[in-house]
Predict the 3D structure of the following.
Amino acid sequence: MTAAEITLRSWVRRAWVARIGVVILLFILWEVAARWWVDPMFLSPPSRVLMSLQAVFDTRGVPAALRITFWELGVAFAMSVVIGLVVGLAVGLQPFAQKSFMPIILLLYGTPQVTILPLFILYFGIGPASKIAFGVSHGIFPIILTIVAGVQNIKPILLTSARSMGASRWQVLRHVIFPHMIPSFFAGMRLGMTGVLLGVLLAELYVSTAGIGYFTTLFTQNFDPTRLFGLIAVLAAMAIVLNEIVRRAEAHFSRWHTD
Amino acid sequence: MRESRERNSRLASRSVQAVFLIVLVVLWYLATTRWGVSSILLPNPVLVVQQLWDILKSGEFLGDLRVTLTELGIAFAISATTGVTIGYLISRSHYRIRVFEPLFAGIYSVPIILFLPLYVLFFGLGPASKIALGATISFFPITLNTIAGFGYVDRILVVAARSMGASDVQLFRYVLLPAALPIILTGMRMGFTVALLSIIGSETIASLAGLGHRIVHLAEGMEMPRMFAYIAFVVVIALILNTIVSALEARGKRHV
């Protein structure tokens, strides 16, 4: 075995190198399939998609559509977090409220909300409002559930000892409950982000006049897979970045207690 | 003493739930009859119940229900077999787990519903695109859980079974499978739920038949009472399916 072979082997043995290799292999397969096997009306090779990214951004209205979708995601996420936090605390801190309302919340969480998507359009119109509302309806429940679970998981001994040392209600909230809720709060934010992405994109794809849903429909109907792939790639990248931001925040803020 | 107090509090929370639901229905009724909320936005609940009864009695839901359930069944069969097979093959070596698991987890975090326009382009408006989307979306939780189930079996158990002379088949049947099955079953339940959601969702967005399509069709025809009735019907069907799957999961876990 030559030295070059040995270095190659030790490189491949590293998992991340092999992982990138797999991804590159898939792209090569896609490229070959799209160039020689598949009707160009349906599949476009990745090299052409990459080159067309500029054309996607140059399409009239696409940058604005991306901005609108991004804005919808942001507003829906912020609203989900605020409402979810308030409802989660209100329900979680009160044992009676929890017993009464948790089954209702779980029931709502378990229903497939896509069935009422047409209702959201009917009530909120075909503009951004319906997308935001639908995103909130998807994002809010995981946040409520993790907040309630987080409040529940605080060891009673911490609450008792804080009270026995004379902590007021506000002090208990500020110094015991809040710090202990941070991990579950960020876990909830991560799940909420997944939900908001799903909700907003579903509503966008269902009906849209100016958001990205309009352009995915347009490109599909024009049999323009190159630009469709390009747009979807941009959106997927956006989703990955948003998820990663929330995941990093979760990892960062839950470091302090790892027991 | 304590038991009776607990029973009282459970009774109280049950009655809060009942009151909450009753108030909701009464408000709904009053809003449509007294306060003049447009019947296009909110139909009269009595009409909705009549329509629901009519749908159930006439059996017109059967066609759409069959389409949706067939799509769901095929999608789940595809994702369960490929997911478990691929997951098992990956889980057989630590190296493969480290190569593939982050890859699958990364793709899983992308909202796969984004690919629906592509799937419609490839597979058309019919059931094929729904099956493909449902299979893709449910593939990931099933594969990831299979990897987690088979890949992280306690080494001591494997070594102990081997040193007592277990064959490959025995090792699989009595050590690996019992350890992995609960986790795989959880993955399958998650996969089933997301497959159902994505199939109804893609029927809503672009389709020719199915329950999601029916709801959109009624919405576009402004037949609100019937649409509400169908929504209620689909929600109940989804809850029933999810309950059945959860029960099967619990049963499977007990029988290992």
Remarks:
- Residues 53-253 of chain A form a domain with the MetI-like fold fold (CATH 1.10.3720.10).
- Chain A touches chain B through 48 residues (CB under 8 Å).
- DSSP finds eleven helices and no strands in chain A.
